[in-house]
Amino acid sequence: MTPLAQLIEAALFSASRPLTVEELQVLDPDATLADVRAALAQLRDHYDFDGHGVELKELAGGYQVLTRPAFAAAIERAQIAVRTPKLTAAALETLAVIAYRQPVGRAEIEEIRGVSAGGVLRSLQERGLIEVVGRSEALGRPLLYGTTSKFLELLGLGDLAELPRAEELSVALQPPRPAAPETADAAAYVPAES
Amino acid sequence: MAVSLIAPTAPAPPTAALGAGPGFVVQLETFAGPLDLLLHLIREEQIDISDIPIARIADQFLQVIHDLGLNQAADYLDMAGRLLRIKAQMLLPRRADEEGWEDPRHELVRRLLEYQQIREIADWMERMAERQADHHARGYLPPPPELPPPPLTLDLLELLQAVERVIAGIPPSVLHQVVPRPLDVEGATRRIEGLLAERESFGWLEALGPRPTIVEVLSTLLALLELARRGVLRLFQPASFAPMVITRDTARPAD
Lengths: 194, 255
Description:
heterodimer, A: two-stranded antiparallel sheet, 5 strands, globular, disordered C terminus, B: mainly alpha, 49% helix
């Protein structure tokens, strides 16, 4: 491996989160972004073809060295690392709404799910999977939520574009209403009057 | 035609398998919400989602929330109300060629489809998260284990010195004997009134009397304050920290 690839390997090893190409470029002032990408490709090939227990994964807009799935069970059995706990159905549904409608307010989330969302939003925030990204212009200026890079890490996604698109889902649905700031209106359900 | 709005009379055999029991918290976890329950009913009955027999589904919905004891959960009651409203609207007579009639179920169907889509995404996300959980990142820091204490190596002198230090650190124990010493405000009041009857004015020390105990001091002070409040006397302090001077209050006649 080139010295740059070795340097990047060391940096990725020392980090506990995905590092972006830009962050890795800072390691060597002489390296261009292209150099960094080439070194990353070399590192990935090194892990993939020389028989390693770890692999280089593209995650949340960056790169991270992760253990291969084949060893997960043994590592967990030996209690060397703990498996990420599963999310509840309520948490997953709320995350799904936020991922697709962000920035989105609490009223719209509750309207779509049909249940109050306060507790779930708080625990998702505590786990760092969502964050407040602004305030709506609607009455009361409610908080608007969005997903974080930790959310992408949780699902193993490179970015939000990797979420399945609406037309890939089996459930047909007219295009979602524009991610409306007037979510307060949406909360007041008015059945069609004849 | 009499329309009963609360009519959970229709038998709901498919929901019997859900199990009914006391305590709605546990049961709530069976469904992620009223829409989830509604979808469950529709799937059980194999109904076309765009043509829901609203009367039957509304009755079943009520039956299930009754059976599961969900009727304490506002979200479910809210949905039950909407269903009954749609049911009522469907019962209203209308002409077949009526212009501008909109199916009252339309909004519900839209929400159900939207929710179904969210559920599908949530399931996909769960699978992705489960797959990703097979990868462990570096930087996982387990809580540091409790280190076993290192074996003690010390001689007698060090041990004695350590004992000395520990003993020196113990604060001397302060023991209080608690004895009941009830305040005697009435007695003090009588004494002060006696003094006031004799003299126009007297000092704090005189009011206390000879060799007062702490309880007597407190009783006297409380009696003075009470008498001053009632307008029997006035309290005056000629200088800072000087003894109070007690004067008969002549401006207001004592009652």
